[in-house]
Amino acid sequence: MKTTKWPQRLPIWAVGYQTGAYLSLSLAADGSIMEPRKFFNFFLGVTLAFAPVNGAYDKERDALLKGTFPQDFIWSSATAAYQIEGAWNVSDKGPSIWDTLAHQGRVNNQDTGDVACDSYHKYPEDVALMKQMGLKYYRFSISWPRIFPTGEQQDGVNQDGVDYYNRLIDELIVNDIQPMVTLFHWDLPQVLQDRYGGFLNNHTNTTVIHDLFGDYARFLYQNYGDRVKYWITFNEPWITAWLGYGIGNFAPQHNEPAEGQYKAAHNIILSHAKAYHIYDDEFRAAQGGQVGITLNCDWGTPKTPADADAALRYVQFFLGWFAHPIYKNGDYPEVMKTTMARKAQEEGRTTSRLPEFTPEQKLSISGTGDFFGLNHYTTVEVTDACCTPIENPNYDTDKDVGTGHAPDWPRAASSWLYVVPWGIRNLLGFIKEEYGDPEIYVTENGRSDHDQDPAIMMDMERICYYMMYTNEVMKASNMDNVKVKAYTAWSLLDNFEWLSGYSERFGLHYVDFNDPTRTRYPKASSVFFKQLVRNNGYPEGSEFTKYVENMWYFCHNTTEAEVNGYTGGASQISSLFSLFLAIPMMIAYSLIA
Ligand code: PNW
């Protein structure tokens, strides 16, 4: 692992922490050795007296809720095939559109997923890590071109690929971990892109891409459905549609921002419905599993009361685009249709850029989710920007909104990731109201660190993130009666973070990508998460909850350095805290736990 380099320059608050540390050490130096937990509590108390107050937080709204999740609550962690597997051309695996993009050198630092975490070979280690954390569920994805090299079954099946997922699933089951399988996490077979335009394939009719996705889904149900009871058809179709076929910075790099995303989304929704009905008609009775889709959405909060409609429009264009057809009535949200119709008029078009579903299609789409999969990371502040016609319209301008971030929201390493825990509670409440109180599985939530020297192993800010976000999920569950059934941490491992390559780390476990054996190291957050799972929340009176109570104030004040534009913030906090707080804390805690 990397060597420790100490920060050259200390911000004022850090001096406060240091002073606190020395103070508490000297106070304890009356000859007696303090009992670890007392020492830690005392230490934290003194130290936190020096912490500045972060204006991003509200005492009442952000208060710690004590209590536990429902008994059958699902705790899980997630990965995706291209991000962890490597073995990109082992046996007959075909190339995916992400292999193509990465091999063109389009990723930060020219990184590729060729080896990634090498989970294709090291999957038993991954399973062991989950076992060690006490996780009973694992969300992973299957690589379509690893199963069908061209994407089409008639061209041949890659038996080695089929066997790989059999081994992974068996390893999970033996270790009492339930698989939750995503059919499509962005790695479309390149041949399908070349032959049919991928999800742009003749979008207005039932076309070959729907059938091919259906064939692929059927093959997976047939081969794995005896052991897999949770299926997620698509991961974040919003990203595939907008970044893949609209802006085109993600694979397959199709740049058509006026219409590409709407066509692709249309095809994805129809492909999802197809896969759902195949399960319903051919497998459900025998296998008894569930099929859903995972949608991502940032919460949109109005900047001023006058922006309330704009914020709602933002969420409808984001989540509603997919959720409204699937979970409500087979069709796009009303506000999307009327907005796009008005734009067509303004632009002198005879038809809307938003395609229409036929009545039969609406019927077949509506209600095709046994659960509602949600990926959520962040929140934006929305302002109304209605309604200036512009020359080159795109999905972003179509919404007639402006987006920004409150100046005091702490940030993670990913440029788009602002830490706003209460956003998830609002979003969960919105889903409950809007889509008829579905069972919601949070299928991703997490926070990135930079890849930096020293490596962030005492990842206090990730601990804070999980602590605050899961507590907000518990508020949604226990106070707002939202049917949240699952919480999934993204990610089990540091991995290939798409265009950012290995420069952003989301893992509960550190992976050294310079080490040919890709050794995994647990970060402090994995210990925290283990305790969270064991306690099923924050039960009154438990040692874990006491620890969380002590951390709560720290977590709500910590990222001040970054807020003030001090770029090294995350590392300063982490390295100082490893020395003065996290290490004694972890030792103390391991003695108790
Ligand atoms: C999700 N954005 O993607 C994906 O499901 C994961 O594969 C990914 O690693 C994770 O979130 C963290 O990024 C996103 O640019 C990718 O806003 C990009 C964005 C959001 C989510």
Descriptive labels:
46% helix, three-stranded mixed β-sheet, disordered N terminus, globular, GH, binds 4-nitrophenyl beta-D-glucopyranoside, alpha/beta, 593 residues
Structure in words:
By secondary structure, the chain is of the alpha/beta class. Helix content is 46%, strand content 12%. The strands form 5 sheets. An 8-stranded parallel barrel has the order 2-3-4-5-6-8-11-13, surrounded by 6 helices. It has a 3-stranded mixed beta sheet with strand order 7-9-10. A hairpin with an 8-residue loop joins strand 15 and strand 16. Helix 17 packs parallel to helix 18. It is globular. Residues 1-37, 49-53 and 559-575 have low confidence and may be disordered. The site of 4-nitrophenyl beta-D-glucopyranoside has 13 residues, from loops. Keywords: Glycoprotein, Glycosidase, Hydrolase, Membrane, Transmembrane, Transmembrane helix. It is an enzyme of class 3 (hydrolase). One of its GO terms (molecular function) is hydrolase activity, hydrolyzing O-glycosyl compounds. The active site is at residue 444. InterPro entries: GH (IPR017853), GH_1_N_CS (IPR033132), Glyco_hydro_1 (IPR001360), Glyco_hydro_1_AS (IPR018120).
How would the blueprint of this fold be written?
Blueprint: H1 12-28, H2 36-48, E1 67-68, E2 74-78, H3 81-84, H4 97-103, H5 119-133, E3 137-141, H6 144-147, H7 159-174, E4 178-184, H8 190-196, H9 208-224, E5 230-235, H10 237-247, H11 260-287, E6 290-296, E7 299-302, H12 308-329, H13 334-346, H14 359-365, E8 372-375, E9 379-384, H15 395-398, E10 401-404, H16 422-434, E11 440-444, E12 449-450, H17 460-478, E13 484-490, E14 504-505, E15 509-511, E16 520-522, H18 524-535, E17 537-538, H19 543-555, H20 560-563, H21 569-592
Parallel strand pairs: 2-3, 2-13, 3-4, 4-5, 5-6, 6-8, 7-9, 8-11, 11-13
Antiparallel strand pairs: 1-17, 9-10, 12-14, 15-16
4-nitrophenyl beta-D-glucopyranoside is lined by residues 80, 83, 235-236, 239, 296, 375, 416, 444, 490, 497-498, 506.
InterPro entries: GH, GH_1_N_CS, Glyco_hydro_1, Glyco_hydro_1_AS
Enzyme class: hydrolase
EC number: 3.2.1.21
